[in-house]
Amino acid sequence: MLGTVEVIDDDGRVVTIGSPKQRVVLAVLASRVSTTVPAEGLVDHLWGDDPPRTALASLRTYVSRLRPVPRDHLVRSHRGYALDGAGLEIDVVRFEEMVGDAARRPAAEALPVIERALAIWRGPPFAGLGDPGSLRGAAVRFEELYRAALDIRAAGLLATGRVGEAIAAAEELVAEAPLREGVWATLVAALTASGRVAEALRAYQRAVEVLAEAGLEPGEALRKAEA
Description:
- The protein is mostly helical.
- 60% of the residues lie in helices and 5% in strands.
- Strands 1-2 form a two-stranded antiparallel sheet. A two-stranded antiparallel ribbon has the order 3-4.
- Helix 7 runs antiparallel to helix 8 and helix 8 (163-176) packs antiparallel against helix 9.
């Protein structure tokens, strides 16, 4: 799901899923693994406000025509459909677990965990599905997790003494997401650790200006870095 929506079997072969709408069904269920999604909700995901009269029948067909993997993990009930995650390696689930694990660790310990998590990321979530608005919320959630993972990596690089890499990573991150205050704090601390104190103070001022434009003030982490 992190990148092109695809299924890979135990032998490492890509399993043909079928039509784009089958991929949407799979993506919705995988993003809510082990949670039952009502059939009417899947119809909304597939056709929005203009479903055909045969929508429910078409949905049953899409599910039945999925290949044995992942069809054997699909659970149908009177309430709808769910993807049973037992025995499956689902990248969005694994990525979220690893980012959460890294976030609970000290920065130095978090680095190897977060680098393994980032190795899973293959691109924007649900790529190849066009623009299914129904998946936009899930895509935004995973992209935010990705940015959080990059923040954790930058802090981990600094904590393990890879100061130059930490500066480069933090500069790239603040250029892309200038309101992420934690990365500014990492940048200020990394520049200070490298002996570039004047640049560190300028970075702090840059952060203050960017935050002020958004009506925000520096938080505790950034103020500590400046001190």
